Structure formats: structure tokens, C-alpha cells
Amino acid sequence: MKWVYSILFILLCGMLVAQTSELPVVEIMGDAQVKIPLAKRSSLPFTIITHSDSLGPFFPVGIPPIPKPASPYKKPLNGWFSGRVNTDWQVFAQGSLYNLHRRLPHLRVDLENRFLPDHFKHVDHQAFASLVFDDTFQPKSRLHYQHSSADQYVANALLLSASHHADSLSDKGITLHQVDTRLWWENTWQRNASDRDYHLNPGFWHSHRLQYEDNLVDTHLGSAMGRFAIASAYHVPLHLPGLKKASLGLMSDLHHVLPQIQVHYERPLNPSLLLQAGNYPGMQPLTRSQLMQQFPWGIQPTLGSVPYSPLDVKAQITYTLPSFWKDVYSHQRPQPLNNNAGGIRSAYTYNQPVLKEGNTPIPIISLEPAWNHSLTSNALLRLPWGVLRQELAFNLHYLPHQGRIRTPYTPRFISQTSFSYQYRKLVTNLILNQRYNQKDHQKRNLPEVIDLSLTAQYRYSPALWFEGGLQNILDKAHIQWEGLPAEGRRLYLQVKYIWH
Questions:
Q1: Mean pLDDT, residues 380-385
Q2: Using alpha carbons only, how large is the chain's radius of gyration in Å?
Q3: Nearest to 369 by CA among 411, 403, 330, 414
Q4: Angle, CA 174 vertex, CA 172 and CA 177 arms, to 5°
Q5: DSSP secondary structure string for all residues of 383-402
Q6: Which of 22, 27, 140, 409 is the most exposed place for a label (fewest CB within 10 A)?
Q7: Cα(407)–Cα(413) distance, rounded to whole angstroms?
Q8: In Å, how far are 132, 271, 309 from 181, measured between CA atoms?
Q9: pLDDT of residue 308
């Protein structure tokens, strides 16, 4: 037991090395429901395979993040509004309306405007609507507009998407589970000092699980940015101790045909020690609007591709520590347990979006094969007056088809330390993020990132919330990439109103 406490002490008190990562936020839905999304609220309803240096749980089962407390309202909600502004002239506004019409149960609008020095500007506006035609057909639609501009650079992207989900469809002994279909139409345009580019791309993506008796087959297929891709795997019925899932199949983007082998192994070694390991291949569509969200001022590639990872090996071991105090702080239910976990990951991804190496003032986005390796460790400790969380990571990302160079803007060492405290209606968070040893797209060393932030949220009433924060208290210059103005100390204020 002593060696476990020694390791925990080293993790909490050792050298901190990290980057900023954003904790999920609570999405308040209609009928007093609360949803914690896995991505930013402004993200599209499909994800992009990006092995970035986020310190979130890289394993399907991990330590849950600490969400903000949900509204105590039990009555159905009619809507909410949230507005935020900071000293960098960044303005954010979000709002949702519920039960407007029996055919329109949910309408949402997100507005984001960023006005940075040196003529940098980014506008991101989205509108989301949930429609009801009958009990079986309830599609969701989204309109997404973006505009980015800088010195001698302008880009626009407009995307209209619709999606539909069905839990199960049966006919003659064959059942389709988790049926998801997405359609979109995208119009993008960009111009820089030497070139201009225009793209009109329709796309679709479909996934389902087919069941016939005891046989299961998972399938994903579709076309994105003009490139078709498909992945299909059969569930192998292996009944071995600790083996939770095993499947075998193929995946292809019409340039490569590769095996798809998924394995998930999970076994408790003792009541306090849990081992999880496996290979988790994945394939998801990619749109130019997603590229513009990730790299607002990057020059987009002429040809598109679908990112997919045939190899994504992960292993994690988690040790649950006993509680040291009977009465401990927690605004999360169920209360998180004291944990100390370590993990390793190695993934090979085709068509991963990266910033290409070169001497261009504005970076060029490229879809490249990439190796992504990481060694991580995290710990969570509940105290009588708060929750302390520490995450450390060592990363190595490189591009094998570009002379094995390091992927630009990927730090070797990252860390996040956070402490959360609640007193009645007040919730405060102190977060220290650090990021060391990274290079830009011109092979130049970037300064280390040391970001100390303090945020506070106050619930004035069940309907009215106030939030404020001081980010980058030490006023260190944070460079997202060369050419983009560095971020310094920032103060933000936010208000949220809920009505029913």
C-alpha cells in the first residue's frame, strides 16, 4: 500500500507539464433533463478523428470529469439563454427554445464572434432544430455558417445537415439497431495572396448494427469531401474471461483495404485494481466546416479524405484509493472515487488533419498518415473542502510520410492540475495548464505554455446564473500557431437565464 501512496504523491507534487483542455459543460434540455455532452456545444453532430493533446480520458471507461451543478428546476423548461464576453473582443451567445410547436420541440442558436489583433477575425454561427413528423420519423437539422479573415486571407463555409436516428428496425428475423443516417450539403470558398479555391460538396454517412439470430455486424459507410469510405466488422462470439468484445472485419477509403480488429478486455485484478486494454479502430466523416472550426485561419487542402484508424491500441490500469475522510466535497452524483490511473496508447491514423511543414506565413492544412503515441497518468483525490485532479502526459506525434518529422504544434509534455471548491451557491475552479517542447510548422521552437486560470460560478436564483473568470493570470504569451496573435491575460463574464 505504501508504494501506491508514494506514486500518488509524486503525481500530485512533481513537475507539471500541460496544455489547456476544456471540461464538458452541462446542457439543460427540455422536461428538466440534463445532458453532459462529450464535445463542445458548438460541434457538429458527427466527430472528427483527431489525436490531439487533450488530457481527457483516452479510454472508453475512465475517470469522469467534474461537471458544473445542474439546475434544480423540476418543471419543464421553455428555454434558456447564455451570453459571454471577454477582454479579447470575443463574444459568445447561445440559446434554446422548447415546445414551440408540436412539430418543432427544440430550436437552438449558437453565435460566436472573435475579433483579434492584426485583422484576424472568425465568425461561427449555427442554428439547430429538432423536427417531429410522426412517432418514427423525427429528424434533426443544422445550419452552420463560418467566416474567417486575416491579412490577405478570406474564407467562408456554409453547411446544411440533417440526421435521423432509429433504435431498431425489424423485418423477417433481421433487426437493425442504432441506425444513424446523416446528409449534408456544403459550400466553401477561400482566397489568399496567391490562390483561390471553391468547393461544393454533398455528403452522407450511415451506420447501423445488423442482427440475425446471434450474429452481429457493425457497418459504417458514406462519402465526405468527395471521398467514399466503408468499414464493417463481425462480432466474434468468443467467451473468454475478461473479454468484453471482439470483432473482425475490413475498412477502406478506396485507396487502402485494411483489416479491422477490435478487442476490448477488462478485468479486475483485485477489488481496487482494474485493467483495461484493447484495440479500438475507428472511422468518421470529415467536412471542410470541421477543418475550419479546428484551424480557422488555415489554408484548406484541395482534395479531401475520410480519417480512419485501423490501429489504436490502448491500455490503462486504475487503482481505486480508499476515502480518507467521511464527509467530502462533491457536487457530482454519483460521487467520483479517489483514483490513480496510468495508461499507454499507440495509434496510426490515415488522413489525419495536421498543419503542414513549410515556410508559408499562413499554415496549410494537410491530411496525412500519422503515428500518435502517448503515456499518461492521472489522479483524483476528494478532500473535505474540494476535489483535486492531476493529469500528466508524454506524447510523441510524427508524420512517417514527411521524413518522420514531428507533427507541428504537438507538445512532448503536457499537464493539467485543477482544484474545485463549492460553498453553498458558489462554485470555484483553479486550473493550471502547461505545455512544453513543441515546434511550429517552420521547425521553430515555441515558448512553453503556463496558464493559470481562476473561474467562479454563482447561482443567484434557480433561473439566473452568473459566471466569471480570469484566464492566463501570469500573462504568458500563448501561441496557437505562428502568425496568429498570441493570447495574454483575459477576463470573461457570462450570464445564463432559464425560464419555464
A1: 84
A2: 23
A3: 403
A4: 135
A5: ETTEEEEEEEEEEEEEEGGG
A6: 22
A7: 14
A8: 16, 42, 21
A9: 95
Whether 94 and 111 have beta carbons less than 8 Å apart is answered as: yes
> Measured between alpha carbons, how far is 393 from 377 in angstroms, rounded to an integer?
6
How many Cα neighbours within 13 Å face the side chain of 134? Answer: 1
Largest Cα–Cα distance of the chain, in whole Å?
A: 66
Cα–Cα distance, 263 to 456 (Å, whole number): 42
Compute the distance between CA of residue 497 and CA of residue 447 in angstroms, rounded to an integer.
40
- Looking at residue 303, what is its pLDDT? 85
Of 60 and 113, the one with more pLDDT: 113
Least confident range from 41-55, 357-371, 433-447: namely 41-55
Number of domains in the chain: 1
Give CA–CA dist 285/59, Å, rounded: 21
**For residues 122 and 91, is the Cβ–Cβ distance under 8 A?**
no
| Number of neighbours of residue 260 by Cβ within 10 angstroms | 24
What is the length of the chain?
500
Give the contacts of 259 (CB within 8 A, at least 6 positions apart). 248, 249, 250, 251, 310
Q: Give strand pairing partners of 61.
A: none
Residues with Cβ within 8 Å of 356's Cβ and at least 6 positions away in sequence, in order, are 363, 364, 365, 366, 368, 402, 408, 441
Cell of 11: 503525481
| Separation between Cα atoms, residue 367 and residue 354, nearest integer Å | 6
From its phi and psi, is residue 273 left (phi > 0), alpha (psi between -120 and 50) or beta? beta
Closest CA to 314 of 9, 58, 42: 58
SS3 category, 6: helix
The whole-angstrom distance between residue 396's C-alpha and the CA centroid of its chain comes to: 20
In the numeric block, the cell 480520458 is attached to: 57
Q: What are the C-alpha distances in Å from 56 to residues 21, 24, 374?
A: 8, 10, 13
CATH of the domain at 254: 2.40.170.20
User: Rounded to an integer, what distance in angstroms lies between the CA atom of residue 457 and that of residue 429?
Assistant: 9
Contact 379, 358 (CB under 8 A): no
Between 148 and 193, name the one with better pLDDT. Answer: 148
Q: What is the pTM of this model?
A: 0.80
Q: Which residue range is the domain that position 486 belongs to?
A: 2-499
Give every CB contact of residue 201 below 8 A, 6+ residues apart in sequence. Answer: 185, 186, 188, 224, 225, 226, 287, 288, 304
